[in-house]
Amino acid sequence: xxxxxxxxxxxxxxxxxxxxxxxxxxxxxxxxxxxxxxxxxxxxxxxxxxxxxxxxxxxxxxxxxxxxxxxxxxxxxxxxxxxxxxxxxxxxxxxxxxxxxxxxxxxxxxxxxxxxxxxxxxxxxxxxxxxxxxxxxxxxxxxxxxxxxxxxxxxxxxxxxxxxxxxxxxxxxxxxxxxxxxxxxxxxxxxxxxxxxxxxxxxxxxxxxxxxxxxxxxxxxxxxxxxxxxxxxxxxxxxxxxxxxxxxxxxxxxxxxxxxxxxxxxxxxxxxxxxxxxxxxxxxxxxxxxxxxxxxxxxxxxxxxxxxxxxxxxxxxxxxxxxxxxxxxxxxxxxxxxxxxxxxxxxxxxxxxxxxxxxxxxxxxxxxxxxxxxxxxxxxxxxxxxxxxxxxxxxxxxxxxxxxxxxxxxxxxxxxxxxxxxxxxxxxxxxxxxxxxxxxxxxxxx
Length: 446
Ligand SMILES: NC(=O)N[C@@H](CC(=O)O)C(=O)O
Ligand SMILES: [Zn+2]
Ligand SMILES: [Zn+2]
Known about the structure:
The structure is a single chain. By secondary structure, the chain is α/β, with parallel strands linked by helices. It is built from 13 helices and 21 strands. α2 (98-111) links the parallel β7 and β8 (115-118). The longest helix is centred in the middle third of the chain and has 18 residues, at 205-222. Residues 150-151, 177, 229-230, 276 line the site of one zinc ion. Residues 48-233 form the Dihydroorotase catalytic domain. Zn(2+) 1 binds at residues 56, 58, 150, 303.
């Protein structure tokens, strides 16, 4: 197994340390560490973070491999500093049975860049009519804990109640895409002065807030865990704050793009900025940042949503909703939150690693960067700056809203299960990573 010495890294809390990685774990922290057999990484000026965990990634396989595959999406994740992702269920076939989630999980294991944890659908075929095989997916080898019809809202209150009752029995969580369907028919962008001016159908904040309020009350009634996907409005932050004060088991995520970008970008009709939920107003951005800072919002999740050029290089009203986000997430978080003084790096470690792992019931991420923890680490250079381009995108799709803009920070190395997936700022080659992944699985079996 690979041994790695990271020399002179800065921990999230600002202390400097060397780190010895051996046998898949963080073996030792301290100064003057050396090991004749180890690979040496000079981390002078670099910040070490616990491996990032994404609660909300669209990997598109099976079924939409021209947009992304489990391998290409895993590579995009690794170069973004992630060591685990939760793969959304809106594939074809839908991830609504044990067979599909086990396939997703094992393709992720074989690729070896990140831990791929499948999200199970709440309803069969995402059709919103009958429950999916929730129990079978939970008991399967994929051990699914997060269930979501993301892309669609579980709008039927009785089905939502039944799903919450079901997941409660094994400590799972329902992750809701909060969008009241009747209030958002044909919606193209945030509802307000801009949607009127552009003459496009608006997506009102109340369509999100009403579902969050309803589901928080259902979660309270059932005594189950509820998670809210991609919170996007100031009102949603207030509703979640109220629900938490009431003791309801609700958690919420926000995307990097909703923390940085606003609806004004829709003016150019460039469909790279078309996303669901839509980009909102500057007031909403401010409220989302404040919600993260005060703990109302628990996690940042990318909602990486790859789409091929034919679905994006077209008129705004027929273009697909969604933007890629894995490769840019940490830079956008630095720009929106760290460089603006809203969060420190310890907070970043919490909202991008420990808390999303806890919500997904993913083990090994509760200790942060500490001796004895699994070797899931990200080394970043916060002083770097780059004009973001397609060369920075490693998935199959290029629908990034950040192309040609300057973003701070850069991932220099990512370590997953004790081996490098990113080295000197470049992805480690596929065969090498797959080989290391196989070795690591064999060691853990033996
Ligand atoms: N976010 C998006 O705009 N699109 C997502 C679906 C979703 O997250 O709701 C997709 O699957 O493309
Ligand atoms: Zn969604
Ligand atoms: Zn999504």
